[in-house]
Design brief:
466 residues, transmembrane helix, four-stranded mixed beta sheet, M56 family metallopeptidase
């Protein structure tokens, strides 16, 4: 099926989104340069939408066009026996051809319908936000103009307006909430949110659009969290406030981004050491690489290169993310507790919080249904013998943590290259509780074809046998 100009535009735009997503999650996601990550993600969405429509000079030599044979109908004279003059033969009557299905139009219609549904959903969210504004009233809290809302609703901002219920927050927490939302307002984060929503609706069948939207929203929260902590707020008290706020009623879907996984990522980024200046080199790899691949493809198309067969396959639409509350089991000093008890506890009484997720959570609780465990230890009981024993169990269950490939030393990479030359690295994890005497140990998941195997290294890159 030949590609129409519209389908070719969509193919290029979605391909560029995929390249930007691969570069971001492979190189940039864990860096603490949040402003640079914001610029990268916004540029990714804008560039992917604009560049297919720009005249791009060919970067590759032209491909030779195949010769096209021209059919020439020749009418041969026929003669009858004994006659010297030619007579025309019988004329063949062609059967009427069936009208072929225009698959290009079908694909475009399906794509347009999906985009229309996404944009309609965005419009409904904006109207819902407008109705919520009409139920609010103007107020001034801590010298900051806000819109006061009734009921148990999480604070949020949209445009230049902050929405919250002042009566729901203690004084210290209210100051942190205002600082957080003021960062969103002053840096115009609403524009990023709307851009990400429109991009997701326009590229609804591309998983990269969903991933980039989630990454952009998370990064905006990292920016606001960083600004709040830079103002001198206590890190532990702020994290506990976020935990308490996540248990309340969510705000409008367009502006509320509280999930357990998002909260866990925010806490992890707050505790993440600042990226070194040398890590800036990753941006000089990610950006030019994506641009070169995208523009190179456009140049090839400009010279008549045929699109790859895989580009003509339809990409299945991803399942819409589940917005239901995620199952979390809370423990306070070793005892299963309710959300109400956690909120009642108060940040000043908490010594530390240890989250467990997935297999680590199920390993700890023994319940195959558990997805998250939140172990909270109070200051009053942190030295009690049974609480210490409980925390030891929690630490023992937290056996592995995902790590970046770049934690491996050159010696470890050289060992893998020498001993597993035909394998690829699938995942690197840090063993939080390695066997005694081995020190910090990393487990590298390798695969050769479909056969998995593992290699273990200490923090100096020396191979370790377990």
């Amino acid at each position: 099926m030949p590609l129409s100009p519209t389908l070719l535009y969509l193919l290029k735009a979605n391909g560029a989104l995929l390249l930007f997503a691969l570069a971001y999650f492979g190189l940039l996601r864990r860096l603490t340069f949040f402003t640079l990550n914001r610029v990268y993600l916004v540029f990714a969405l804008l560039f992917s939408a604009v560049y297919p429509a720009l005249p791009v000079p060919a970067l590759l030599p032209p491909l030779e066009a195949p010769a096209v044979a021209t059919a020439v109908a020749v009418l041969l004279p026929q003669t009858t026996a004994g006659a010297g003059t030619p007579q025309a033969g019988p004329t063949a009557v062609a059967a009427p051809a069936e009208t072929p299905i225009d698959w290009s139009a079908v694909v475009l219609a399906v794509y347009a319908a999906g985009a229309a549904v996404g944009l309609l959903r965005l419009l409904v969210q904006l109207l819902s936000l407008g109705r919520l504004r009409r139920t609010s009233r103007p107020a001034v809290v801590g010298g900051v103009p806000v819109r006061a809302l009734p009921g148990e609703v999480s604070p949020f901002s949209f445009g230049s307006t902050i929405y919250l219920n002042p009566a729901r927050h203690p004084a210290a927490e209210l100051a942190a909430v205002l600082r957080h939302e003021q960062v969103h307002v002053r840096q115009w984060h609403t524009l990023d949110v709307l851009l990400a929503q429109v991009a997701q609706a326009a590229a609804w069948c591309n998983p990269a659009a969903w991933l980039l939207r989630r990454a952009l929203l998370d990064n905006l929260e990292y920016l606001a969290d960083h600004a709040v902590l830079a103002a001198g707020l206590d890190r532990r008290a702020y994290q506990y406030s976020l935990l308490r706020l996540s248990q309340g009623a969510a705000g409008p879907a367009l502006v509320s981004h509280f999930t357990f996984l998002t909260l866990k990522n925010r806490v992890a980024m707050m505790n993440q050491p600042h990226s070194s200046t040398g890590q800036l080199a990753r941006y000089f790899v990610a950006g030019p690489l994506v641009l070169a691949l995208a523009l190179g493809y456009s140049g090839a198309r400009a010279q008549g290169a045929r699109p790859a067969a895989s580009s003509q396959r339809k990409t299945a639409a991803p399942t819409l993310p589940d917005t239901r509350p995620e199952p979390v089991t809370h423990y306070i000093d070793g005892k299963v507790s309710t959300v109400a008890e956690v909120i009642k506890l108060g940040a000043d009484n908490v010594a530390f919080i240890t989250p467990l997720k997935g297999d680590n959570a199920r390993k700890f609780s023994g319940n195959p249904q558990d997805e998250y465990v939140m172990a909270i230890t109070t200051k009053q009981n942190q030295n009690r013998a049974d609480v210490k024993a409980f925390n030891a169990r929690v630490e023992a269950a937290d056996t592995e943590t995902e790590a970046e490939v770049n934690v491996l030393t050159p010696a470890a990479l050289a060992f893998i290259t020498k001993n597993y030359p035909n394998s690829r690295i699938i995942e690197v994890t840090k063993l939080n509780h390695p066997p005694t005497g081995l020190g910090v140990t990393y487990k590298v998941h390798l695969a050769e074809g479909r056969r998995p195997h593992y290699a273990y290294f200490d923090d100096k890159g020396n191979a370790v046998k377990l």
